């Protein structure tokens, strides 16, 4: 009888150990969703509905939040926390939306994406520019000229740094370029093979509350600032993200390029959103793996 009890006891212990090992394996497999949930959200911005609503429609567990006149969609994408921000057009709107997003959502990083006009004749509609640099091309000092002296935009070649290191400098003449975050750039390169509608290249994104259609002026920006594209938001977002020390990357798709007669294509807005979501997934996956 004692032998029977002994063997039953041994069998019970073995069964418990086996089940424990199985449960341990299950817990190991479930750590990924747990790590996803622990991450702070990544914010992805688009100025207009054509640059943001496609992304919002892809979120799970989504809620819409409105702060002032700025709309945010909070949810998950592939299990990762994501906030889509419709910044509205222009430098002031996008700066305000960025500051609100940082204060309200405490994001792990910010991607500003959307459509842009080409400055580089080697780029074509549907090509995507990753902002190795983002710069404000609307901040400059004009030459001194008297009444009747005329005005020539091609002489406006002194860039004005609106975020100088020396705030006491009365004339901070310099081109301020905000560098794209290296980890976000790495994620963008991981997503690159999935994008088949055009090239994906590094470049400089130029921003201003201006729509330039003068080819000589565009050529000047391309030569002096090294711009690949122009749009109206990314540099102001970069400036705010920089001051809050939040990782930032600008991603812009060419919707048109008048330097090589590239006609506007409205489908570019959705194409860029899909790519930006892929970049966000790659970035968040790397962050979850590092935890």
TrEMBL record:
GO cellular component terms attached to this protein's record: cytosol
Molecular function in Gene Ontology: adenosylhomocysteine nucleosidase activity; methylthioadenosine nucleosidase activity
Keyword NADP applies: no
Domain Nucleoside phosphorylase residues, every copy: 41-269
BP GO terms, sorted: L-methionine salvage from S-adenosylmethionine; nucleoside metabolic process
Key words, A-Z: Signal
Signal peptide (from-to): 1-21
One Pfam family this sequence matches: PNP_UDP_1
Protein known as: 5'-methylthioadenosine/S-adenosylhomocysteine nucleosidase
Origin species: Acinetobacter vivianii
């Amino acid at each position: 009888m004692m032998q029977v009890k002994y063997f039953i006891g041994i069998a019970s212990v073995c069964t418990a150990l086996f089940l424990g090992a199985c449960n341990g394996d299950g817990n190991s497999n479930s750590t990924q969703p747990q790590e996803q949930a622990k991450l702070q959200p990544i914010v992805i911005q688009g100025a207009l509905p054509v640059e943001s609503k496609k992304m919002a429609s892809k979120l799970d567990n989504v809620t819409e939040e409105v702060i002032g006149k700025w709309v945010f969609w909070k949810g998950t994408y592939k299990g990762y926390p994501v906030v889509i921000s419709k910044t509205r057009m222009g430098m002031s709107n996008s700066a305000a939306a960025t500051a609100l997003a940082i204060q309200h959502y405490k994001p792990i990083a910010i991607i500003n994406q959307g459509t842009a006009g080409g400055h580089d004749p080697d780029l074509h509609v549907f090509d995507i520019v990753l902002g190795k640099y983002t710069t404000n091309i609307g901040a400059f000092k004009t030459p001194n000229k008297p009444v009747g002296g005329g005005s020539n935009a091609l002489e406006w070649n002194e860039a004005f740094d609106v975020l100088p290191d020396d705030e006491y400098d009365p004339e901070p003449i310099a081109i301020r370029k905000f560098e794209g975050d290296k980890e976000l750039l790495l994620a963008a390169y991981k997503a690159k093979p999935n994008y088949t509608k055009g090239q994906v290249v590094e470049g400089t994104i130029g921003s201003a509350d201006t729509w330039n259609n003068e080819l000589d002026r565009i050529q000047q920006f391309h030569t002096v600032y090294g711009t690949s594209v122009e749009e109206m938001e990314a540099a102001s977002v970069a400036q705010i993200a920089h001051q809050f020390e939040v990782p930032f990357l600008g991603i812009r798709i060419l919707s048109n390029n008048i330097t090589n007669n590239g006609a506007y294509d409205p489908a570019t807005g959705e194409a860029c959103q899909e790519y930006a979501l892929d970049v966000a997934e790659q970035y968040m996956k790397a962050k979850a793996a590092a935890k």
